[in-house]
Amino acid sequence: MKKSIFIATFILLYVASVNGFLFFRECVEGVTSWPTQCCPLFQGSVCGENQGRGYCAQKPYIRTVGPVDVTYDERYNSPGFLFNWTCQCNPRFIGADCGICYPGWTGANCDQPHMVYRQDIKKMSPQQVQRFIATLHYGKTKIMKDYVILSTADRFRRIYYKFLDASCYDLFDFLHNYATRPFNSGAQEFFIINYAHGSTGFFSWHRYCIVLLEKVLQMCSGDNDFAFPFWRWELETNCSVCNNDYVGATDIDGKISKYSVFSEWRLICGNDYSQTVCLTEECACQRERIVRLPGLNSARLPTINDVQRCLSMPYYDTAPYNRSSINSARQCLESLHNTVHVYFGGIMNQVHMAAGDPIFFLHHVNVDRMFDEYIVQNNLRPENYPPTNVYGHGPTSCIDPLFNCVQHRQMLQPISNLGVTYKLT
Hints:
The chain has 425 residues and is an alpha+beta fold. It has helices at 25-28, 126-141, 168-179, 202-221, 304-311, 329-344, 359-377; strands spanning 4-7, 23-24, 36-38, 41-42, 45-46, 54-58, 83-89, 93-94, 100-101, 105-106, 112-113, 116-119, 143-151, 161-167, 183-184, 189-190, 420-423. The strands form 7 sheets. The chain has a 4-stranded antiparallel beta sheet. It has a 3-stranded mixed beta sheet with strand order 3-7-6, with no helix packed on it.
């Protein structure tokens, strides 16, 4: 990587809305005393205030009140410990400096509606597939200029945190990894739930963060119409996209074929070392490669009947809002989603590393398509979000660990409101 920044103090990682997924470089370089202000300039104006984009304001400390053991966790109350003043963006603007259009909008003033189209990858032309792969690979290699990620070897000591450069793609890979880390009580790490899985916020977390990654890849590539395709695994009995025309063939050990560009990919966050945050090598050449073993275990791909059963569930989610929920479309579909991860084995079956495999997005976008179908057929809106009391998954809980507060319930509406349309034909 190009650059490392060492800071011997307690650092709270924050993940901002798009183009602010991670640490805004200007707000962390050279800083030794926390909390501090993070109100960057946009076109010469703080938070773009002169352009009507936002303003610098004191950041509220309380986002979601969690169990007492969680309050020591460095993600708790993000980003209140690190930044006491931040840009508060007006509608249609997001980002650390309010310099980016909210998904679904474009133009110099973010006042022009914009729609992207997610397609069935098996129905795309070879040229469309190659363009998608080229954009994804470019995003994997293009280093973000203004943002960095956090790497540390000791979450308990709270010292010697290190910031690293990361590519456009790796910002999401890191975000998914960090959202699934165990909670830090100050004395031990423990699993009770994580921010992205196992409860009502499963769909909303992945929906919003994937939309943000699409936005980042649009900016990195200059292709304003870039969108992730989906793979309809429920219509197949094996992985028909696991070849070099799509996401790469694999050998008996799960290694990607050298004839696929994905054989060059390395994971930004590798093995799950305890008490660490994304312990990674600075040189990508020393990082772990993708391993994928489709169908080499007892798991099978779910069928269309399995999916229809989930979509017929009478409730979006039910108490106790976890893996024990009954008559819950969320739990039913999340369970099918889990089965697909298990089917692939390799890193797809390791939650903290799964997003490092590009098939992760073909899978998750398909799951989001099902989520959208359920929303539309049941006419769901944010006010219909269940009264979940699970920490980090409630209706007014922020989608963590993000910088700006976007509530889970805001994602319970047709995805067309975020400027995305699914094309089945």
